[in-house]
């Protein structure tokens, strides 16, 4: 039997060999064998330290092993680990009440707890089918969107390379060009059941829709009797300096959606997702027995998510995220080779510019050099990098990365 590796064992290569032998290859070869984390830092099996600027793809909102998060999980595990959804638990109810509170949901709204962002979007997809009652076959999504890899969520995801190997997909979904209001208007007619939109798209390099886009989407869906679904799986839970991105005026433009989906940072590292229906009519789109999940609302995951909410509040993390955004964006824009910085809060895209050779640096090569230097960043698209660090990250954490980035870009 293989031993579980610990820091400083020097067993990195045997561990990778074991990975290739016993685990599915769908994620490719692992880049690191991580064995420990603390705050914004992680350590591999050889004891090498890394600054985590990706946070499990926007998941580790409180960083690694935050004491409040660890205590909540430990306490809950010592009381009640799992129950079926034939029953409920105080942690599940408290979490749902907290979601109601931060979103200021109207009476009749409800939270369906699941395990992931894809599952949260699957539930929303089924709700929109029920709302259509079979008479509205079309669901509109946007080019560049990523909503997950299960079959319904995959149909909403724009990248053909993700969908085509699994054709035929779920029918009825059409993708409209990004940021094109006229195309959006043309797609929303009496056949349209719903529109799915990420307030900020992360998959294509962190980009925000043009001003007026979300507001127009709300106007069009309301006029057509279609639903507006906001996918806040990545942009929610304080990532932008607000509980949910659409609550910021510049992003949300005062829009109230019909359904909101959440996951990633919701559990701070524990798997949990949420599909939030706004108002009584939307809540009634699914009746008892029409949907379900085995682990959704698990007491431990719910306790972890509640700890994330409470810690963000008690430590003033939303304000901290907004302050760190201003500092980090300014620092990045001073670096040669950085053309622009997009995004909000601590969900940032870095656009690289052409160097002396006239060519834009290969973002994958930049990320590889960063990893070698001890920084975890994400080459999300050609010439574009994504940063989604823990929300608790500080200037002191980031200064070594800012100092190293010019050389990492230059190669």
From TrEMBL:
This is Acetylornithine aminotransferase. Its cofactor is pyridoxal 5'-phosphate. It holds the Pfam family Aminotran_3. One of its GO terms (biological process) is L-arginine biosynthetic process. The keyword 4Fe-4S does not apply. Pyridoxal 5'-phosphate binds at residues 117-118, 146, 231-234, 294. Keywords: Amino-acid biosynthesis, Aminotransferase, Arginine biosynthesis, Cytoplasm, Pyridoxal phosphate, Transferase. Pathway: Amino-acid biosynthesis; L-arginine biosynthesis; N(2)-acetyl-L-ornithine from L-glutamate: step 4/4. Binds 1 pyridoxal phosphate per subunit. The modification N6-(pyridoxal phosphate)lysine is found at residue 264. Its EC number is 2.6.1.11. InterPro entries: AcOrn/SuccOrn_fam, Aminotrans_3, Aminotrans_3_PPA_site, Class-III_PLP-dep_AT, PyrdxlP-dep_Trfase, PyrdxlP-dep_Trfase_major, PyrdxlP-dep_Trfase_small. It is found in: Cytoplasm. May also have succinyldiaminopimelate aminotransferase activity, thus carrying out the corresponding step in lysine biosynthesis. It catalyses: N(2)-acetyl-L-ornithine + 2-oxoglutarate = N-acetyl-L-glutamate 5-semialdehyde + L-glutamate. GO terms for cellular component: cytoplasm. Belongs to the class-III pyridoxal-phosphate-dependent aminotransferase family. ArgD subfamily. One of its GO terms (molecular function) is identical protein binding. The gene is argD. Homodimer.
